[in-house]
Amino acid sequence: MPSASSASSADSDSGEPVPSAPSSLWRDADFRRLWVGQTVSQLGEQACTVVLPLFAVLTLDAGAGQLGALRAVGQAPLLLLSLFAGAWVDRWPTRTVMVLTDAGRALALGATGVAGLLGLLGLPALLVVAFAVGALSVFFAVAYQASLVRLVAREQLVRGNSALEGSRSAAQIGGPALGGASVSLLSAPIAAASSALFFALSFLAIRRIRGREPIPGRSQRPARTGRRIHEGLRLVVGDPLLRTVGLASAAFQFSFAAMMTVYLLFLPRELHLSGTAIGLALAATGPGALLGSLLAARLPSRFGYGPVLVCAAVLGDGVLLSVPALHGSSAVTVLALLAVNFVFGTFGQLVNVTVMAVRQAVTPDGMQGRAAATITFAGMGTTPLGSLLGGFLAAEWGLRGSLLVTAAGMMLSPVLMALSPLARLGRVLPASRDAGPTGSSPWIRTP
After folding, report:
1. What is the pLDDT of residue 151?
2. Any idea of the CA torsion for 332, 335, 337, 343, to the nearest 10 degrees?
3. Distance between CA atoms of 350 and 100, rounded to whole angstroms?
4. Secondary structure element (H or E) that encloses residue 9, with its range
5. CA gap 115, 95 in Å, rounded
6. Tell me, what's the pLDDT at 447?
7. Which fold, 26-210+225-424?
8. Domain range annotation of the chain
9. What is the distance between the alpha carbons of residues 408 and 356, in angstroms, rounded to a whole number?
């Protein structure tokens, strides 16, 4: 893991000691509150990924181009705000950031529910809501990743990441199923209001975190935002492992966004599945992700981080190539989708947890937020373009052919991993190196 330093050592430039961690993370009240808040927030976010697109498709009769635009608008903040979010989170308590973003998302979705019940919710309003929720989710995601490093001892990071990623996996089980079922059985306004409740619960849990966060570099005169963003970019571009993570993430997320746009049209219009069946099919990634979290705690240390990353990416991405071969809405088709999504969730989560461990290992404490945000920018920032491409391909080439092409594009990610130093990582993570006095890392190379 990132270092062998004691939990009681000074944390970067803050001069404040990190409290010794309890023998078990679950005895740490602040960690439990973070875990609960992150879990229900992820549940609401996962529900929204189904509620808003299905509202557009099933209620507003949105076409392929309109659905692609909706998904692109919701993902645009990843491109526009990720770098700023990283620089901002590194200077502020993560608790404050998470509480504010939870409150904002709850209000936005609550207002959507009211507007929908009054018959005032159309596609333009849905675009505004999608952008607002996406923007606030960017800040929450960067904050919760950085919060763990500040709240627990470094030797507890593996267990902490496993718990948080496990809860995210659980959210992948419940979120899509709840979203699809609520739209199908109730109504889109009630589904939106239900998602707002999850963010409200997360707000209540996270605001109860009492521990004082040691914020690296906070005692110094704050650097300009542009300079701090540049430091994050230098770190990721200058380090071969982080650079590969960013490039592989960009290739995967671009193709995955295009594939999902086609996929969400393919399931109801080509296979004629109901909203409930779609939600259940998507939710199958959750149990797989739980298994992937368990495998991530064992396989890399046994077979090596590099081989596990490459093999898991090949298996997880490759299984989606079988989806275009499915026909009809029979029980066999639904079972096949459940199996495909389970395999995708298992190996996708194995990649996610392993990559996160590598990133945290080579990133200095004072750069955790900016490193996470820069990689998010490089990877998730491509998703709006991918969503637009998916909508265009679906309209011009048809659903089945477009699904095959976009799924094949996802295989570029494991190819990039296999050709990089990431594939040669062994069974022990690289040692971390301390940040310099300005919060930047002295060992990175200038691009």
Report:
1. 75
2. -140
3. 31
4. none
5. 30
6. 24
7. Growth Hormone; Chain: A; (1.20.1250)
8. 26-210+225-424
9. 25
